[in-house]
Description:
Blueprint: H1 3-34, H2 38-63, H3 68-89, H4 93-103, H5 108-145, H6 148-200, H7 224-250, H8 257-284, H9 292-308, H10 324-336, H11 338-359, H12 362-411, H13 417-435, H14 441-450, E1 459-465, E2 470-478, E3 481-489, E4 492-496, H15 499-515, E5 521-525, H16 531-537, E6 544-549, H17 552-556, H18 558-561, E7 574-578, H19 581-587, E8 592-597, H20 613-621, E9 623-634, H21 640-653, E10 658-663, E11 666-672, H22 681-684, H23 686-689, H24 691-699, H25 705-709, E12 712-714, H26 716-722, H27 747-762, H28 764-769, H29 772-793, H30 801-810, H31 815-820, H32 825-836, H33 842-854, H34 858-870, H35 877-893
Parallel strand pairs: 5-6, 5-8, 6-7, 8-9
Antiparallel strand pairs: 1-2, 2-3, 3-4, 9-11, 10-11, 10-12
Helix pairs in contact: 1-2, 1-3, 1-5, 1-6, 2-5, 2-12, 3-5, 3-6, 5-6, 5-12, 6-8, 6-11, 7-11, 7-12, 8-10, 8-11, 9-11, 9-12, 9-13, 11-12, 12-13, 15-16, 20-21, 21-26, 27-29, 32-33, 33-34, 34-35
Amino acid sequence: MTRPATRLSLIFFLSGAAALLFETLWFRLCGLTFGNTAWASTLVLTSFMTGLAAGNLLAVRIAHKRDALPLYAAIEAGIALTGVLLVLLLPSTQDLFAPLFRALLGSDFALNAARLVLAFILLCVPTTLMGATLPTVIGALSRSERNYGRALGLLYGWNTMGAVAGSIAGELVLIKAFGVRGTGIVAAGLSGAAALTAWTARLDGAPASAGTKVPAEGGAPLGTARFLLAAALSGFSLLALEVIWFRFVELFIFATSLAFAVMLAVVLLGIAIGALAASMILRKSTDADQWAATIAAISGAMVIASYAGFDPQLLSRGTFAPGVEQRAVLVDALRLMLPVSVLSGLLFTLVGRSVERELRDETRAAAALTAFNTIGAAVGSGIAGFLLIPLIGIERGFFAIAIVYAAVALLLVPRDGRARIGAAVAGAILLVALVLFPFGRFRSTFIPLAARDYVASAEIAAVREGPIETAVYLRTSVAGRPYMYRLFTNGYSMAATSFSSKRYMSMFTWVPLALRPQAKTAVLISFGVGVTARSLANSPQLQSIDVVDISHNILDLADLVWPDASNPLRDPRMHKHVEDGRFFLRTTNRRFDLITSEPPPPKSAGVVSLYTEEYFRLVKERLSDDGIASYWLPVYQLSVNDARSIVSAFCNAFDDCSLWSGAGTEWMLIGSRRGTMPLTEAGFSRQFQERAAGDWLRWIGVETPELLAATFLTDADGLRRFTAGTPPLTDDRPLRLSTIITGGILPEYLEMHARAPQEFARSAFIRRTIPESVRQRAMSVYAIERVIDGRFNDQSDRIDPRTLSAILTQTQLRMLPRIIMRTDMWLENIARDAVARGSHDPQLIYIVGAGELAERRYARAAQLFQQAADGGLTGARPFAGLASELAGEQNRSR
C-alpha cells in the first residue's frame, strides 16, 4: 500500500467510526422526538438516506473545482460541527415540535409527512456532508494509485471497518462512560481528527482538478444504466436482508441494544472484508469486475443456503451468565449474515469499477454508484419492514431477496467468455437453490425452536409477522379448554395470562385506584396480553380509558385471549392508539387521573426511554392535579444497580414515590402529581364492593382491603435509602441500565420484602394515606402477604402442610390455600367442569380437591385427594390425610 493510500485509509477509518457513532446517536434521539413506531423509524431512516444520496450527487459539482484533500477536510470539519450540534440540540425538539404533532394527531398521513419533513430538515446538512466524502477524494486517490477499483475498495472498506469499531465502541464503552452528549463530542473529535489528517496530507500524481480521463459528455451513457440499477438493487437487497436477518435472529435471543450493535457490526465487518478483498483483486486484475454477475448469483444462493442451514445458538431462557447471550448473538450473526455481507462488499466494489469504466470519470462514477446504492438501501429497508415481512413473512422474504440477486446478476452479465461461463454456473446454482427452497421450515422448525422453553406444555395458537415484531401466541390448554396464553415476541416471553401475571398486572390498576377512588380517566401504555386493560375495564368508576401500543398486531390479537365481550378493547370507554407511548404523552393535550404502564422488559432494545427520569417527569406532567401513576419494575430481571438507577429516576420525578409488590419480585412504583391524599375506609375499600372488580381481586388472592394495603414495601424515604449515591437513569445516560441480562432473585430484593412490615409501620406516607382501621388490620396480615410473595418467589413444588393447616384453621381466606397448592379459580373452573363431565384425570381431581379444601369442605376434599392418589397421583395422598384430619376436627367442633 502506498503512503497516500495508507493515510487516506486511516482518514476514512476515523470518518467511518464517527459517522456510525453520529448515526446511532441521531437515531436514538430522533426516536424521542418522532416516536419509535415502525413508521416513525422508517421515516427517520429515509431522511438519513436521502441526505446521503444528496451528498453523493453534490460531490460531482464541487469535487472537480478544488483540490480534493483540503475540500475533504472542510467537509469532515462540517460533519464534526453539525453532527455534534445536532446531538446537543435534538433533545430540545421534543417540546418544540409537540404543538405541531398535537394538531396533526387525527391524520396519520399528515403526521407522518410532518415527521418526514422535519427529520429531513434536521438531518440534511450533516448527512449531505457525509454523502460527499467518498466521491470527493476517490478521483484523486485513484489517479495516485493508477487504479480506480483498488482505490474504491480501499476507501470503502476502511470506512466500513471504522463503522464496525464505532458500533461496538459506542455500545460497550462510550455511551456508558460519557453519555449521549459526551459520545457526540467524541464522534466530533474523530471527524475533526480525520479533517486535520486530510488537511496536512498530500497525494502524489495529478491534482484533482486535472483528471487524466475525459468526462463523458451529455450525462451517463445508456450502458451505465444497468450498472447503476444493479447498484440500487444490491443496496436494496442488503438493507432488506439486514431487516429480515435481525428479525429472524431476534427469535432466538433477547434483543438488547448491545445485541443489535453486535449484529450490525457483523454485517459491516463482512462488507468491509469484501470491499478490501475486491481492492486486492482489482490491484492484480483491473478487469475483475467482469465477474460481478457471478458474485451476485452466488449472493442469492448464499441467502438461501445460510437460511436453510441455520442452526441457532440455543440458550435456555434461564441462562443469564454475563456475556453468554452476546456470544450467542455473535455466533448466530456470523453464521447467517457474514457470508452474504462479504459478497456484498465485493459486489459493490466490482460494480463501482464497471460504472467508472462506462463514465470515464472517477468522481462522477463514485457519486452515481453511492447515490443509487443508498437510494436502493433506503427503499429496501422500508419495503422489508412494511411489505415483505407483514405480507409474505420472513421466510418468503429470504426467497424474494434471492430473486432480486438473480435480477442483479442478469443486469451484470459480462461480455468476457470465461466470466459468462462463471455467471451461468453461478446462475444454475442459484436456480437449484430457489427450486429447493425449504418453504415451511420457519413455522415447522424455527418458531418451535424459538419458543422451545414453552412448547412442551403449550401449543402455538397464532403467529403474526408485523413491521416491528414477530408475535407468537402460545396456548396452554387443560382438559381441552384454554387456560393460559403467553405472548412471545422477538425472542422473549413478554406477557402471559398465568395466575401470577394476572395478579401483578391487575395491581397496576387496583393499588392506584384504591389510593385515588375518585379517578375518572386512565391511560394504559402498552397493551401486552390485555390483563391490565381488563382490570381497567372492570373498574366502573372510570369513564374514559385510552390504550396506547406500538403494534397493530398486538391489539388485533386481543380477540384470541379475550373472546367476544370479554375483550377489554370492546368496552365503549376504550380508545385505541397505535403509537409510541412517550410520543403520545408528549403530544396529547389531555391530562389523566391514572397513567399506568406495562412496557416490554427494560433491557429490550429501545425500551430504556420508557424508564428514564425525563419520561417519568413527562408522565407527571400528564397527570391531573390529583392524578396518580403506577409503573412496572421487574427487579428479578435487573441487577441491584439497574433497579436503583430506575428507582432514582422515578423518585426524582415523584416526591411521594412508593414501592409495592404485585406478585413476588414483580414490583410496582407508585407516584402522584400532588402528593398524598387522606382516604376513608369506604374510599380505600370501594373496589371490593363492586362486583367485577371485587371478584377479580378475590380471584387473584387480594381478598380484603388490608391484604391490598399489605402489598406495600416502602415509601420515598425507604427508596431514597435504597438508591443513596446511585445516579438516575436519564436520556443522556441510557447505559446506566446495563445490557447484560440478570436473572434470579437477589438477596437485596428478598430483604426488601422482609423489611416491609417495619417500613409500613413507620411510614409517614402510609399514616397520611391509609385509614387507621385498614392500617391496623394490614399489620396483622403482613405475615400472610409474605406467604403469598414467598410462593411466587419460590418456583418449587414444595408445600408446607403446617403452613397450609394454619391458613385453613386460623383464617377465613379462600384463595390463599389455592395459591399455596398452585391452583387458582380459572384452573379450578376448568377442572370442575371436566370432572363433572366424567373425567378421571387424577390431576384434575386434585385441583377440584384443592378447591374443596380451600372452601373448608374437608370431607369432600379428602375423598377427591384419595381418588387422585388411587389414580396414580401419589403426591395427593398427604393432602387426603390432612383433609381427613381437618374433617374430624370440624365434626367435633359441631
